[in-house]
């Protein structure tokens, strides 16, 4: 694998740390096993320990043991084997089960940490989604996506706080906005449950239903109350505020609102503005809170009533509350089931919902509710759902929930990435970057990138590409950058696919073999050699002409000295011997089809093909306008792809039809230039055809024809076109010498 002994040591240390409970170590090894299990292509599924490989008609499992009767999965259809590429494994040969073991350990530790933290497992940790490459690419804040917007200024937050605490007229909206920022850690604000509760209380005391629901939730679970105990009475009062009319009143509001929506839909929306907005649904966090109070009971105020709790949960679920959906799911799976405890006083009709024990139907319904809660971002539901997928559920010998390693692994991966460990590191890294501490920021991004975070991989790759190399030279820094870009591209990031394609297209990973040329010059050599207009380089960098003149003067001097010493062979004969072009009468020459002639630009051609592969991934998976434009350009000029003008036009047209219309002008220019380019190519092909017809003229003798054919192949070097022949005659050393002598003579005369 890439990394050698150093990577092997890292894997051992990660494993030892994971066994001691280190979350990041478990995530790092889980990610490496996951990459290996995909075998470089996630679309074909994950390699499992149950995958079978057929060898000489006998079927073995991945542990090398023969299966019963030699029967197993057909190796040509269902079985999966690891890729032979070292870069597809990251140092381990992993399976879905081995990756699941590490991610499950990390996810369990994260849930334990969250449920014992001030978040109580009910509030997701604040995440940072900034992608530095997109920020620098877009520039202006107005063109950035929401997750890339700059952090809120301290002055703006203080302004909202001042309006919220105005003793004359407190601003409800400002108080709720500030509370939301502290609650979820939005726009770079530090997540602080105590301050969130403070501002929710201000808004709730001013009769805000939404704020009352959140304030009641905080008091119910003891979130943000500091050293004080939770206050169930305050929670009850806030929940009452958001549920006017109680359960029956809220149900009437919901039915009336639903009826008005249906009527508005039938009337094509004509009645919506002045009727639907007159009725407001109850606050769904308040409904969920009332359901919990009826489920747990509250001394002297609320008696335990499971049926009423379920009705509150159902109404809150219908209004989109993920907590209520999760609570219903857990009750279906046996949570708070009176069968397991006799301390509950429940109504007789509760037995219709909760029998002596959960049935297979309850498991299926609970499973579906967990999936719905997970789709709404509930972290505890995600964890429970992953547990069900990883173990499976059998009920009286019947499989109710089928074990699914890949689905369980995906859920555990999402949960691990959303945990406090990774989110804290990502937020710290972005703060350090904005403060100018680039080295510390890069180290944090690299650490998070090793755990599989796409945002961290993209940001680490960008910083390495920008020259923050932590002491590495340019080539090693570029290789480290492209490794991060490749990792993000493997996970489907659009910008990463484009960047990897650019790395290979412009040849950033090719080493400088000429010791006489600086790194900067070598880099420009690589970049402009892949352009169809390499001469533009000398317009932008005229100083390169001096370096080029020095280089070719040295080469010319060496050639003259070698010629004068008599060591130079006949050039035409030497080329014929190397390329194997034979006349009909010469039996001593080896046929060219039997000689493997090395291609001087093989490495560059391979890089072009790799670039096209990544551009195609970005185009197919994301509909990227840049990727389609690049593919069109490569098809136009035959760079790594077959030269095909109609196909190039199709890619250009797709690029122009992108939603943002950013490439429309560039595509129009490219299409205009392509028409001219196509005319020249067609003219060149016509000239080549005419030359070949002249060479094959029957008026020439067989011997003369053979000599002319040999001369044609010598001039074209076996693969040049007729246009190249003409250019060779016009722009060669002899022509330049003649022009120079003519200028000297004209000056003398």
Descriptive account of the structure:
Helices cover 61% and strands 2% of the residues. It has 33 helices and 4 strands. Strands 1-2 form a two-stranded antiparallel sheet. The chain is elongated and about 115 Å long. The chain starts with a helix and ends with a helix.
Protein structure class:
mainly alpha
What's the end-to-end separation, in Å? 71 Å
- Low-pLDDT sequence parts: 52-64, 66-78, 269-276, 338-356, 513-517, 566-570, 575-600, 712-722
Number of helices: 33
Spatial strand arrangement across the major sheet: 1-2
Largest sheet: 2 strands, antiparallel
Query: How much strand?
Result: under 5%
Rg, Å, rounded: 35 Å
Total DSSP E strands: 4
Mean pLDDT: 78
Shape: elongated
The portion of residues assigned to helices is: 55-70%
In short:
It contains 33 helices and four strands. It is an all-alpha fold.
List keywords for this structure.
single chain, 749 residues, mainly alpha, two-stranded antiparallel sheet
List the helices and strands and how they pair.
Elements: H1 4-19, H2 23-38, E1 52-55, E2 58-61, H3 96-115, H4 132-138, H5 154-164, H6 172-184, H7 193-205, H8 209-221, H9 232-241, H10 246-266, H11 272-275, H12 284-296, H13 306-318, H14 322-332, H15 360-375, H16 379-391, E3 393-395, E4 398-401, H17 405-417, H18 420-434, H19 438-449, H20 454-465, H21 474-490, H22 494-505, H23 519-529, H24 537-540, H25 544-564, H26 571-579, H27 602-622, H28 625-637, H29 645-656, H30 664-695, H31 702-716, H32 722-730, H33 733-748
Antiparallel strand pairs: 1-2, 3-4
């Amino acid at each position: 694998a890439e990394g050698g002994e150093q990577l092997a040591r890292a894997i051992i240390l990660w494993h030892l740390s994971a066994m001691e409970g280190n979350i990041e170590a478990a995530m790092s090894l889980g990610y490496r096993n996951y990459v290996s299990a995909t075998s470089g292509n996630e679309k074909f599924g994950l390699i499992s320990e149950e995958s079978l490989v057929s060898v000489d008609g006998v079927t073995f499992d991945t542990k090398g043991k023969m299966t019963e009767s030699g029967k197993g999965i057909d190796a040509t259809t269902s079985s999966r084997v690891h890729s032979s590429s070292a870069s597809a494994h990251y140092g381990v040969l992993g399976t879905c089960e081995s990756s699941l073991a590490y991610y499950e350990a990390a996810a369990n530790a994260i849930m334990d940490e969250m449920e014992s933290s001030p978040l109580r497992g009910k509030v997701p940790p604040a995440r940072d989604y900034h992608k530095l490459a997109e920020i620098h690419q877009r520039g202006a804040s107005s063109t950035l996506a929401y997750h890339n917007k700059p952090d809120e200024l301290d002055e703006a937050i203080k302004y909202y706080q001042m309006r919220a605490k105005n003793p004359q007229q407190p601003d409800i909206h400002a108080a709720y906005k500030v509370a939301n920022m502290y609650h979820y850690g939005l726009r770079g604000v530090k997540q602080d449950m105590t301050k969130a509760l403070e501002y929710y209380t201000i808004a709730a005391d001013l009769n805000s239903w939404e704020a009352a629901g959140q304030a009641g939730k905080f008091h119910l679970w003891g979130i943000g109350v500091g050293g004080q105990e939770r206050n169930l009475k305050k929670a009850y009062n806030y929940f009452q505020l958001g549920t006017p009319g109680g359960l029956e009143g809220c149900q009437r509001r919901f039915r009336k609102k639903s009826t008005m929506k249906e009527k508005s839909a039938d009337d094509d929306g004509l009645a919506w503005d002045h009727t639907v907005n007159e009725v407001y649904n109850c606050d769904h966090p308040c409904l969920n809170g009332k359901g919990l109070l009826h489920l747990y009971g509250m001394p002297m105020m609320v008696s335990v009533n499971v049926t009423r709790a379920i009705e509150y949960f159902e109404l809150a679920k219908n209004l989109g509350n993920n907590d209520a959906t999760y609570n219903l799911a857990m009750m279906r799976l046996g949570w708070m089931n009176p069968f397991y405890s006799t301390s509950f006083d429940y109504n007789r009709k509760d037995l219709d919902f909760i029998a002596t024990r959960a049935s297979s139907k309850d498991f299926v319904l609970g499973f579906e509710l967990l999936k719905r809660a997970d789709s709404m971002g509930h972290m505890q539901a995600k964890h429970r759902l992953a547990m069900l997928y990883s173990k499976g559920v059998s009920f009286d010998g019947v499989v109710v929930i089928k074990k699914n390693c890949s689905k369980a692994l995906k859920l555990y991966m999402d949960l691990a990435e959303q945990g406090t460990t990774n989110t804290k590191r990502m937020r710290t890294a972005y703060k350090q970057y904005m403060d100018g501490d680039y080295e510390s920021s890069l180290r944090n991004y690299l650490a998070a990138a090793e755990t599989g975070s796409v945002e961290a991989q993209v940001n680490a790759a960008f910083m390495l590409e920008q020259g923050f190399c932590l002491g590495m030279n340019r080539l090693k820094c570029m290789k480290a950058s492209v490794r991060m870009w490749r990792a993000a591209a493997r996970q489907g990031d659009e910008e990463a696919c484009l960047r990897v394609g650019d790395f290979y297209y412009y040849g950033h990973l090719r080493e400088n073999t000429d010791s006489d040329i600086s790194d900067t010059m070598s880099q420009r050599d690589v970049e402009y050699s892949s352009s169809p207009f390499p001469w533009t380089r000398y317009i932008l960098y005229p100083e390169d002409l001096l370096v080029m003149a020095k280089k070719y003067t040295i080469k010319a001097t060496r050639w003259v000295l070698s010629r004068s010493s008599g060591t130079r062979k006949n050039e035409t004969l030497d080329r014929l011997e190397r390329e194997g072009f034979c006349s009909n009468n010469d039996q001593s020459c080896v046929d060219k089809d039997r000689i493997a002639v090395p291609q001087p630009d093989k490495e560059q051609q391979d890089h072009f093909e790799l670039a096209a592969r990544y551009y195609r991934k970005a185009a197919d998976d994301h509909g990227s306008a840049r990727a389609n434009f690049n593919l069109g350009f490569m098809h136009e000029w035959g760079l790594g792809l077959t030269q095909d003008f109609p196909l190039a036009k199709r890619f250009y047209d797709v690029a122009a039809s992108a939603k943002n219309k950013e490439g429309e002008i560039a595509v129009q220019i490219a299409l205009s230039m392509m028409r001219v380019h196509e005319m020249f190519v067609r003219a060149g092909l016509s000239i080549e055809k005419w030359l070949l017809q002249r060479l094959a003229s029957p008026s020439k003798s067989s011997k003369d024809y053979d000599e002319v054919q040999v001369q044609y192949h010598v001039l074209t070097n076996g693969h040049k076109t007729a246009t190249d022949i003409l250019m060779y005659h016009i722009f060669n050393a002899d022509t330049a010498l003649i022009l120079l002598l003519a200028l000297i003579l004209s000056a003398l005369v």
